[in-house]
Amino acid sequence: MLNALNNFWCEEEGATAVEYGIMVAAIAAVIITIVISIGSKTNTAFGVVDGGLTTAAAN
Prior knowledge:
Blueprint lengths: L1 H9 L2 H46 L1
């Protein structure tokens, strides 16, 4: 009985799964941040191009 309890106490598979889950969540957060940043910059660039084309078409 003591041996089984010791094996249960020293088991680390669950901890490894939690660590992988945290790592995946961190990677997803970084990817989301990068995509939002690039999307914002792309939106700004298209706005500048749209403004330039509108000005050019008015002349």
